[in-house]
Carboxypeptidase C (Cathepsin A)
Amino acid sequence: MKQTIIFSILLFLGATNAYAQRIPPVDSAIITKHQITVKGQRFTYTAKAGTQPVWDAAGKVLATVQYSYYTRDDVRDLAHRPLLISFNGGPGSASVWMELAYTGPRLLNIDEEGYPVQPYGIKENPYSILDVADIVYVNPINTGYSRVVDEKADRGLFFGTNADIRYLAEWLNTFVTRHNRWTSPKYLIGESYGTTRVSGLALELQNAQWMYLNGVMLVSPTDLGIKRDGAMDAALRLPYFTAAAWYHKKLDAQLQQRDLESLLAEVEQYTLNVFLPAIARGSSISTTEREKVVQQVASYTALAKEVVSQNNLDISTALFWKELMRKEGYTIGRLDSRYLGIDLRDAGERPDYNAELTSWLHAFTPAVNYYFWNELNYKTDVKYNVFGPVHPWDRSNDNTGLNLRQAMAANPYLHLMVQSGYFDGATDYFNAKYNMWQMDPSGRLSSRMSFKAYKSGHMMYLRKDDLIQATEDIRQFIQKTTVPDNQPAKYGK
């Protein structure tokens, strides 16, 4: 059931209607009513598709940020109703990924492993977390329908690690105030570069907006500004290589028959205790020791010993994506190595294209355009930017991982959950673990940090079994971290 309730445009910069110009209204809302069944419960919810301005210090409108806001209708007590604030990554990527394939009330039409099928479109999401939390999906500037509207505005105010965090924190203050959510338990979830964004936002919201969170969820996290150059960077890739080779049944029989988690635990220990020191030693390692490491790495990666040796143990991810299935005439995907691609030539050191991304765009782009136009009644000639122009992007002074740690230290309520796919070769699961170790070297915060892994890739939720498990992990995380009434936020007795 869908019913349009209201369409209000508060400020439209002179355009006569939503079709007249390819400029979005800077302050608008379209509200529709819907129904969904989640975990056996049938309930109605309200969807609000709108835009909200970004102002400068003098109150001048510089840009508009578009959002989708979903609230369960039978909830009256907002003080106990969690609010999940959702960002995707890029930078320059819209919120469509998690909105239409993970936590939201609608799912795009794909098969159970995540591959596109026709007819394109959407269906009800019985695994949505809308049963336990309201959700707002935010499209940073130049993604989705969000745009800079002042041609003279300094792009440096938006397009950089810290600039992005600052203006979005200010924007969220306004959003939370307008929707009367200050007393609600609040959560941030980010995917890919969105994990950089929400890690920085956790501290910025505390320090600049005085807004405190209950939880942060990092889906397929980036390096969060935590350095890992040289030997460390090269070594941490090994467990991912093993996982991808295991999936494609390229390992020798003794390893291939192993349970994946058990095998990866072994490879992780080897990485830290043997492989990392071997790379760090460089030419000082003995010929015998080096040959032994080459042999073992070749076994764990299913690559030829010559490939491992010729690259001095430092195998790039691009080479691995090209090399693993070269004899079969395929490349493997970057963000999800379950996907296969076909290159013009079998020769070369990197794939011609990202096999997984073209598959995803195949399904997501028609679905999101259909969804906004037909279900959310958001009719506009502004193009929905699945990926938008945000470059050059200033990546300097990225301390977001340590900022998240500082936010947790300063807020005893704040918890962290990390979700990673074993077959993600862009932001691999072992690097996600490394983030947590380096964010909290003392281990004092470890009781408030959790890690979840899945047998899929960057968007683990595209695989149905992992969608079911990952949404349940979010549900349990929220329920665990929504603190009882009158429990003080303090350390010690």
